[in-house]
Amino acid sequence: MKKYSYLLILGLVFFLISGCASTCETMGDENLSGNLNQRVFNPTDDLWVVSVGINDYTDSYFPNLLFAINDAQNLGNVLKAQEGLAFKSVNSRVLTGPDATKENILSDLEFLQDAKEDDTVILFFALHRIVQNDGFYFMTSDSTYKPEADDTESVASLINFDDIIAALDFHAKKIIILDTHYPKGSGLSEELEIAIFSACRENEQARESHQLGGGVFTSSIIEAFKYAGVNGDVTLESINEYVIDRVRSLTDRRQSPVLHAPADMKKMVLGIIN
User: Fold this and answer.
1) Which of the 8 DSSP states describes residue 87?
2) Tens place of pLDDT per residue across the chain (274 aa)
3) Residue 94: inside a domain, yes or no?
4) Strands 135-138 and 159-160: what pairing?
5) Euclidean distance between CA atoms 59 and 139, whole angstroms
6) Is 38 a domain residue?
7) What phi and psi values does residue 122 have, to the nearest 5 degrees?
8) Taking the alpha carbons of 251, 137, 101, 56 in that order, is the dihedral positive or negative?
């Protein structure tokens, strides 16, 4: 009789242990799945974007670009996709081709002034940039500038970089992204609390790629929103680290992006990998 009692007790213990193990394993799988697939987003701040890309310069000494329009549109789309993820809403304007006139660009900059103090503002430019008498200028689709002219009217058709900075005279977290030659930003970013992310150093060219269908710099930024997450968060710093390595690799180190940013801005979240 004792023998059967022992067997009965052993069987009962085995049953309880097996049932508990199965239940715990199932609960663990459910919890793990929830952590990975049910991330809760509750953004409270907005993103404001003006993205400009110009390929053709019909009345210019400078050669046309190939993928500046693609860059402006693609980056605009990537940032818009962060609505409801990293940002509560994304307010964007994309100006490309003939629409990217001096008047239209300056007008679109005005809508950025609706940004709140905790919002993020991103200005993106893929176009030709001019250095004239120590001044920095953007060529618009209706610019008439020619290097040999060097007259007041010719320069007046450009957008002075100082006018861009003046348009950002409001409280928000501000980033300027320049897929252009002749980068500018050292010292300026700290003074004005603006992050300036440039495609290359002063002695380099901002390159385009048929394989990527865009500028090497901008294409790498777009990739960063997929691959540069730190615990799922894409920060200005993680984008910078990814883009520098990627651009140098794609150009055999002939192009090196440069980020000038106040230290407290580098950790700001610009995207979430969902």
Assistant:
1) B
2) 444 444 444 444 444 445 444 443 443 433 333 344 456 677 999 999 999 999 998 766 788 999 999 999 999 999 999 999 999 999 999 999 999 999 999 999 999 999 999 999 999 999 999 888 778 899 999 988 877 766 677 788 899 999 999 999 999 999 999 999 876 655 555 567 899 999 999 889 999 999 999 999 999 999 999 999 989 999 999 999 999 999 999 999 999 999 999 999 999 999 999 7
3) yes
4) antiparallel
5) 11
6) no
7) -125, 125
8) negative
User: Per this entry, what is the length of the chain?
Assistant: 274
Please report where in the chains the tokens 């890309």 appear, as a residue. 53
CATH number, domain of 96, equals 3.40.50.1460
In a domain, 53, yes or no: yes
- Identify the three-state secondary structure at position 121: strand
Number of domain units in the chain? 1
Nearest to 188 by CA among 206, 163, 170, 162: 162
